[in-house]
């Protein structure tokens, strides 16, 4: 039997090579969740970001947070899933650090509002307890 957390992850449209969420560690369906992504070091983009000193790109921290927000939103038992859910806006984004290979990114997302086909969430990423990302994210999809 598939768990709520597995269903939430399966709701993401991303293929394995563009998924920045390895697992959910907590889920309050439709409201909030936490997840993790381990920077393995073999990700192809690390070869060029930056040669000899690989850093997980800040923009991918935003993507990871949006993926978690999407998984949380799609798990809402009172709303039907929205096909084609995508990141459509970012506000108040603060990239305060980054991750290196071997580091675990801990992600948090809280859905703060829904209106028709729009979902707004507050998101955060941290590494070893230090915040590396804060953002307000808007997702949209089809009803």
Short characterization:
This protein has 2 helices and 6 strands; from the N terminus they run αββαββββ.
CATH fold topology: Thiol Ester Dehydrase, Chain A
Strand fraction: 35-45%
> How many domains would you count in the coordinates?
1
CATH class division: Alpha Beta
- Overall geometry: globular
Radius of gyration: 15 Å
The largest β sheet comes out as: 6 strands, antiparallel
Helix coverage percent of residues?
10-25%
Order of adjacent strands in the largest pleated sheet = 1-2-4-5-6-3
The fourth-level CATH homologous superfamily is Hotdog Thioesterase
What is the CA-CA span between the terminal residues? 27 Å
Q: How many extended strands?
A: 6
Counting helices, strands and paired strands, the structural category is alpha+beta
Query: Stretches where pLDDT falls below 50 for ≥5 residues?
Result: none
**What string, H for helix and E for strand, traces the elements in order?**
HEEHEEEE
| Total DSSP helices | 2
CATH architecture verdict: Roll
Overall residue-averaged pLDDT value: 93
Task: Describe, in plain words, how this protein is organized in 3D.
With 143 residues, the protein is an alpha+beta fold. It has one domain (4-140): Hotdog Thioesterase (Thiol Ester Dehydrase, Chain A), CATH 3.10.129. It has helices spanning 4-10, 58-74, and strands at residues 23-28, 32-38, 86-95, 104-115, 118-127, 130-140. It has a six-stranded antiparallel β-sheet, covered by helices on one side. A hairpin with a 3-residue loop joins β1 (23-28) and β2 (32-38).
């Amino acid at each position: 039997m598939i768990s709520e957390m597995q269903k939430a992850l399966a709701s993401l449209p991303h293929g394995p090579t563009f998924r920045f969420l390895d697992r959910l560690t907590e889920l309050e369906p439709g409201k909030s969740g936490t997840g993790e992504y381990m920077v393995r070091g073999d990700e192809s983009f690390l070869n060029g970001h930056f040669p000899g000193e690989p850093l997980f790109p800040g923009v991918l921290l935003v993507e990871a947070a949006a993926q978690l927000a999407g998984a949380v939103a799609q798990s809402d038992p009172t709303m039907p899933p929205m096909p084609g859910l995508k990141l459509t806006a970012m506000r108040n984004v603060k990239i305060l650090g980054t991750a290196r290979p071997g580091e675990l990114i801990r992600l948090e997302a809280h859905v703060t509002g829904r209106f028709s086909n729009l979902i707004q969430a507050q998101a955060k990423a941290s590494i070893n307890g230090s915040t590396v990302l804060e953002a307000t994210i808007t997702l949209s999809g089809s009803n």
